[in-house]
Specification:
Radius of gyration: 15 Å
Helix content: 25-40%
Largest sheet: 6 strands, antiparallel
Strand order of the largest sheet: 1-2-3-4-6-5
Structural class: alpha+beta
Oligomer: single chain
CATH architecture: Alpha-Beta Complex
CATH class: Alpha Beta
Order of helices and strands: HHHEEEEEEH
Length: about 140
């Protein structure tokens, strides 16, 4: 019988090597953050595809970007493309559309219950980013 840890490990091993390479190139403190985010995101987003997109790991549902993370100058940023619509404390508005973010400087700052709740919302609350250009900047809720 597979444990949860075994299933998570199996799923991580199936991630694209590009995401694992991205994490491996980070400084040790940021690699810990990225590895933890990667594990939780990949096990929490059902029916998703992940890849390096615009230089950073991103998870998609039906080609629509849902969540991703990136190394900034002084932190790791976790970004939810539709995060403003989650109406969650802890997520900060980012950009001119519907994205929201949280920033981490230490893996101990990641509150797994919050992240799992945000991932659940990310699967049901989505704005159609994949057709943003086709719609000339008009963002519609899916």
């Amino acid at each position: 019988m597979q444990t949860i840890f075994d299933r998570i490990l199996e799923r991580i091993m199936s991630l694209t090597s590009a995401i694992l390479d991205y994490n491996d190139k980070l400084e040790p403190q940021y690699k810990l953050i990225a590895d933890l985010l990667c594990q939780i995101i990949d096990s929490g987003i059902k029916n998703s595809n992940s890849k390096i997109w615009h230089g950073h790991p991103v998870w998609f549902i039906d080609e629509n970007p849902i969540v991703g993370y990136s190394r900034l100058r002084d932190c790791m940023r976790l970004l939810f493309w539709s995060g403003q619509s989650f109406e969650e404390e802890g997520l900060i508005k980012e950009g001119k559309f519907k994205a929201a973010e949280v920033r981490y400087t230490d893996s101990a700052q990641i509150v797994q219950t919050d992240l799992i709740r945000w991932l659940d919302k990310a699967q049901t609350i989505q704005w159609d980013y994949k057709n943003l250009i086709k719609r000339k900047g008009v963002l519609l809720r899916i």
